[in-house]
């Protein structure tokens, strides 16, 4: 039985400006990932210092943070079998021109930092990032009648 995991996704200001929120959410829905949390978030300088701490010595750090604060972002928590890796696969490589065709970044974007979307890159990051952006009461557990068709159990 595969692991059921939760992962954090942020739809960046370029996704909002370009009216791609629906298309992007739809890709995760169609895959069979379950949305267990979703909201607008206005990112602060402090939140971004934490979120992008691994990039703090990069020359593009300040402009990356500014980019992420231009508009609210959409935060989502997605749940499913191997959700962390599956979501990264659907999102594609950081540089949209190197991302595989069929991924969100390859299909809809051209350059960093305008690569539309953030997704947690491992178990530790997912746990920390979900906690950073969502309160426990903003995450929901519910049954979907399609679950057994998506996961193929008990059919
Ligand atoms: P990812 O978003 O694929 O996990 P990352 O964590 O290395 O990639 O970087 C976070 C974001 O920082 C990335 O989505 C876009 C921006 N970024 C990364 N490398 C960059 C670069 N060379 N120039 C400008 N922005 C960059
Ligand atoms: Mg990253």
Concise structural overview:
This protein has helices at residues 13-17, 21-31, 45-51, 61-68, 83-91, 104-108, 123-133, 147-151, and strands at residues 4-11, 34-41, 73-81, 117-119. The protein is an alpha+beta fold and 155 residues long. The longest helix has 11 residues, at 21-31.
Please name the defining characteristics of this protein.
155 residues, alpha+beta, 4-stranded antiparallel sheet, binds magnesium ion
Fold blueprint:
Blueprint: E1 4-11, H1 13-17, H2 21-31, E2 34-41, H3 45-51, H4 61-68, E3 73-81, H5 83-91, H6 104-108, E4 117-119, H7 123-133, H8 147-151
Antiparallel strand pairs: 1-3, 1-4, 2-3
Bound molecules: 2'-deoxyadenosine-5'-diphosphate and magnesium ion (MG).
2'-deoxyadenosine-5'-diphosphate is lined by residues 55, 60, 64, 94, 112-113, 115, 118, 121.
Helix content: 25-40%
Strand percentage:
15-25%
Mean pLDDT: 96
| Main sheet attributes: strand count, strand direction, barrel closure | 4 strands, antiparallel
**Which strand order do you get reading across the main beta sheet?**
2-3-1-4
Question: Could you say which overall geometry the principal axes of the C-alpha atoms support?
Answer: globular
- State the order of secondary-structure elements, H for helix, E for strand: EHHEHHEHHEHH
**Main structural class:** alpha+beta
CATH class wording: Alpha Beta
Count of DSSP E strands? 4
CATH superfamily: Nucleoside diphosphate kinase-like domain
Q: How much is the radius of gyration in Å?
A: 16 Å
CATH topology: Alpha-Beta Plaits
Terminal residue distance: 16 Å
Count of domain modules? 1
């Amino acid at each position: 039985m595969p692991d059921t995991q939760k992962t954090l996704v942020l739809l960046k200001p370029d996704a909002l400006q370009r009216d791609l929120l629906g298309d992007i959410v739809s890709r995760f829905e169609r895959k069979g990932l379950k949305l267990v949390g979703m909201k607008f978030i206005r990112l602060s300088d402090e939140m971004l210092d934490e979120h992008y701490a691994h990039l703090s010595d990069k020359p593009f750090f300040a402009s990356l943070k500014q980019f992420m604060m231009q508009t609210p972002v959409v935060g989502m928590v997605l749940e499913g079998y191997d959700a962390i890796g599956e979501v990264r696969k659907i999102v594609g490589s950081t540089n949209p021109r190197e991302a595989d065709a069929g991924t969100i970044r390859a299909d809809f974007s051209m350059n960093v930092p305008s690569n539309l979307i953030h997704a947690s890159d491992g178990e530790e990051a997912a746990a920390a990032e979900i906690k950073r952006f969502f309160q426990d009461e903003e995450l929901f557990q519910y049954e979907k009648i399609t679950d057994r068709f998506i996961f193929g159990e008990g059919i």
